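Section 5.1 Outputs to date
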Amino acid sequence: MTNLPSDWRLPETFDSSSGAVRWAALGPAGAPPVVLVHGTPFSSYVWRGVARALARDHRVYVWDLPGYGASEMRAGQDVSLAAQARVLTELLAHWGPAGGTEPPAVVAHDFGGCVALRAHLLHGARYTRLALVDPVALAPWGSPAYRLLGAHADVFAQLPRGLHEAMVREYVGSASHRGLHPAVLDRLVAPWCTPAGQSTFYRQIAQNDQRFTDEIQNRYGELALPVLVCWGTEDTWIPVARGHELAGLVPGAELRLIEGAGHLVQEDAPAELTAELGRFLTAGPRTGH
């Protein structure tokens, strides 16, 4: 799943409240829908292998969040977690007719977890089930490096291009425990190495802070749908102890640990993650909420 550096395309466009969103749908129309949500500083590219595997039995929707990947990047753009949750809610409404009458299952990674939780708890987005993969969901969060970059975004945005790219490569690479294939690292870093991408990289960090999880953290007990929490045991960005804590706050949540995987479980253990998601998505009756 790491030998696909150039054939991942998002041909569709949706004009969201935070800018143009690029997206794609894989799998048979009319199959149970699944929406995959990426985190930061990544893109839907991290889901490519999982998406293609799940698309054998599901209609899989992938998208780049505003300010990420192939989606719109611009000065003054709201790319906060609050804005991304609104955009997810808008996209679900847009995809509704094509995805059938059944609400989708949602699989969300990193700060995509907060996006999915906010959309559900604050905006009434309906899911049949929710899988959270190493999510940003509990305070405190944000590594020392992440907080430093956010606190001095204006300064870092002025770095010479070479220094900026080297920093981003080191930062993205640290999300993997096993090490990223060079072509994969190139693909993940590339959107941040344009003039627009460099400023957007620091903007998205500066706009996000702990208040976006503080606003929903005490409501996880309200989740009344099947929830799976997956965590890489070698995650150095968000320690696995948070997985145990989160699972304990969600009624009936399952916790599955992926041995030997870092924060980017999709790259470190794609087969294991796909197996867990496939099992969860087809387990028992699908009940909307």
